[in-house]
Design brief:
3 domains, Alpha-Beta Plaits, two-stranded antiparallel sheet, alpha+beta, 191 residues
Length: 191
C-alpha cells in the first residue's frame, strides 16, 4: 500500500509503505485532490466571452420522406470532396443547416449546384461563445444566455454546446450588443 504524508508529518510528499500517524492512503489523498479540483471548477463559473467573425450560416431545403436520406448524402458528399469545413451541422425535418467560413460560400454553392440543390445563406455571421470550465455546474447557462440575447433583440440562428462552452451563431453586425449583454449577464468586465 502507498501512503502520502502531509507537511505536518515531517516526511512531506514522500510515498512510503509503512509510516506512522498523519499519513493518508494514496487513494484517499487522490480523492481529496479531485474533490478540491471539482469544487474549484464549479466556483469559477463563466470565464470569458469569445467571438469568431467571418462566417456564413447556410440552409439547404431537403425532400420529405424517403428522399430525405438521399438529399442529406447529396449535400454532405460534395462538401466533403471539396474538403470544406462545416460546423454546427444540424438536420431538421425539412432542411439541413451549418456554419461555414464566408470565403467558402461560393465553393459550397457550386458544390450544391452540381447536385441540383440551392443554397440559402446568410453571410456576415459570427459565433459568440460563453466559456465555462464545467457547463454542467451551471444548469441555467443556456437559458440566461438566451434571455440576455433576446432582451437585446439579437437573433440566434443556431446553438451548440460542449462540456466547457455554449456557442451561438448570430448576425455579425450584432456582435457588440451580444458580447455586452453576455458580459453583463455573467458579471464579466469589459475589455
Amino acid at each position: 500500500m502507498l501512503y502520502f504524508c502531509p507537511a505536518e508529518s515531517g516526511t512531506a510528499g514522500n510515498p512510503a509503505t509503512v509510516l506512522m500517524g498523519g499519513c493518508w492512503h494514496m487513494a484517499e489523498a487522490s480523492r481529496a485532490v479531485r474533490a478540491r479540483r471539482v469544487g474549484f471548477e464549479k466556483e469559477r463559473g463563466v470565464l470569458a466571452i469569445q467571438v469568431e467573425a467571418g462566417l456564413a450560416f447556410a440552409r439547404i431545403a431537403l425532400a420529405a420522406g424517403e428522399g430525405r436520406k438521399a438529399d442529406v448524402l447529396s449535400v454532405l458528399r460534395p462538401i466533403a470532396e471539396r474538403e470544406l469545413g462545416v460546423r454546427f451541422l444540424r438536420l431538421h425535418a425539412d432542411s439541413l443547416s451549418f456554419a461555414v467560413s464566408q470565403e467558402q460560400v461560393p465553393t459550397v454553392r457550386e458544390a450544391l449546384a452540381d447536385v441540383g440543390l440551392p443554397l440559402d445563406s446568410t453571410e456576415g455571421c459570427a459565433v459568440v461563445t460563453v466559456v465555462a470550465p464545467d457547463v454542467r455546474s451551471i444548469p441555467d447557462l443556456m437559458a440566461r444566455m438566451g434571455e440576455a440575447l433576446y432582451q437585446r433583440a439579437v437573433e440566434v440562428y443556431h446553438t451548440a454546446d460542449s462540456h466547457s462552452s455554449v456557442a451561438c451563431v448570430i448576425p455579425g453586425d450584432r456582435t457588440g450588443d451580444a458580447v455586452e449583454a453576455l458580459r453583463g449577464e455573467f458579471g464579466l468586465a469589459g475589455e
